[in-house]
Amino acid sequence: MKTLETQNLNKLVSKDTTLVWLRRDLRLQDNAALYYALKENKSVLPLFIFDSTILDKLEDKADKRVAFIHQSLMQIHEELIKLGSSLLVLHGNPVDIYQKLNPKAVYTNHDYEPYALERDATVSNILSTKAIDFKTYKDQLIFEKDEVLKDDGKPYTIFTPYSRKWKAKLNKFYLKSYPTEKYFSHFKQCEAISIPSLKSLGFEDVEATFPERIIKQSIIEKYDTQRNFPAIVGTTRLSVHLRFGTVSIRKLAQIAVKKNEVWLNELIWRDFYHMILWHFPHIVDKAFKPAYDNIPWRKDEERFALWCEGKTGYPIVDAGMRELNTTGFMHNRVRMIVASFLTKHLLIDWRWGEAYFAKKLLDFDLAANNGGWQWAASSGCDAAPYFRVFNPTLQTQKFDPKFEYIKKWVPEFGTPDYPTPIVDHTFARDRVLKTYKEALAE
């Protein structure tokens, strides 16, 4: 396997070579951009760029997500080697990289986040000055942008009517897989190029067990009755695979339509939050409902640190935070509980919690993370009303009555070593209702 010297790069990416730029679609099967590139070209080389603009902002050099991406790329690389081809992996700013490359064309799939949109527009401009086509496709969502709108042409801001229109529009066309395998002979035939190590990217090797890339239909079938209980394996744990595109959204939707409408709704929520981000980009750092930016959040760094560490004295909250810190995953019911606790019990800005989740979650996705946090803070488009304050004790009684989940993550629960609550529930509830009411009245 050869290393890639700078002078060999333009030789490898010659004028007869079409690049497929992989980003949130780390698979060779059922991949829209890859399908069209292979179908329309005879010498296709997949490319992944470890984007230094993103990586340089990651404080944790043992970031599990970088390790997950690296592992996924190694799998793709092995598949391509068997086909006589290779994966090209580069490290740097994509804008700088594309200024040096001169392929026949570049194919990629849409990315909807503000940074990605700006980056892609710049790359497109660079390539157009060199008369190189930049073709992009929908791949990570079933419906995107303006595909599901109200009858008056405006975007939905409430989930239920959006989901009804989504389901009414769905047909076999939108669920159809892209048969990339038909054109695998069109991959560029070349010697395998070695992939940069995590160390060379400035990151550490991580001892981590990632959720399997297996679609467990037995879990999907029981999802509606088991999804709220964090002590049991009642969810598919596919969120990280959806986030990085190691599984196809179309494949999952095909199964969901047949097996479980409640699980299908989870996939629709994903489309919904991406649609909201597309139409209302201000939500990245502001409340969807502007009035909620008037809330005088408490800048309580001491209690925020206790929340981060899982030492609030509320066992279900602490279990969730410790699970997150240890594994990069948190059960969805528990995500709602810990987010409600931070924003309602501690009156701490949802943006603090959102940023912490962004650092820790394996499946971090800007649209979904923002949507979930604004839902909990009641500031979002389709949010819990502000007077809904989750009671962690009642949530525990309903969803972890035998304390199985809690005992797994909080071994000192029930002993003198476990801390007393950092805030009283009744006091906190009265305080938040008064604070929100006064702020919204202004």
Automatic annotation (TrEMBL):
Residues 16-142 form the Photolyase/cryptochrome alpha/beta domain. Keywords: Chromophore, FAD, Flavoprotein, Lyase. The record marks W297, W350, W373 as: Electron transfer via tryptophanyl radical. Its cofactor is FAD; (6R)-5,10-methylene-5,6,7,8-tetrahydrofolate. GO terms for biological process: nucleobase-containing compound metabolic process; response to light stimulus; response to stress. The keyword Magnesium does not apply. FAD binds at residues 223, 235-239, 263, 266-273, 363-365. SUPFAM superfamilies: Cryptochrome/photolyase FAD-binding domain, Cryptochrome/photolyase, N-terminal domain. InterPro entries: Crypto/Photolyase_FAD-like_sf, Crypto/Photolyase_N_sf, Cryptochr/Photolyase_FAD-bd, Cryptochrome/DNA_photolyase_1, DNA_photolyase_1_CS_C, DNA_photolyase_N, Rossmann-like_a/b/a_fold. GO terms for molecular function: deoxyribodipyrimidine photo-lyase activity; DNA binding; FAD binding. Binds 1 FAD per subunit. It comes from the Bacteria. Belongs to the DNA photolyase family. PANTHER family: CRYPTOCHROME, CRYPTOCHROME CIRCADIAN CLOCK 5 ISOFORM X1. This is Deoxyribodipyrimidine photo-lyase. It comes from Chryseotalea sanaruensis.
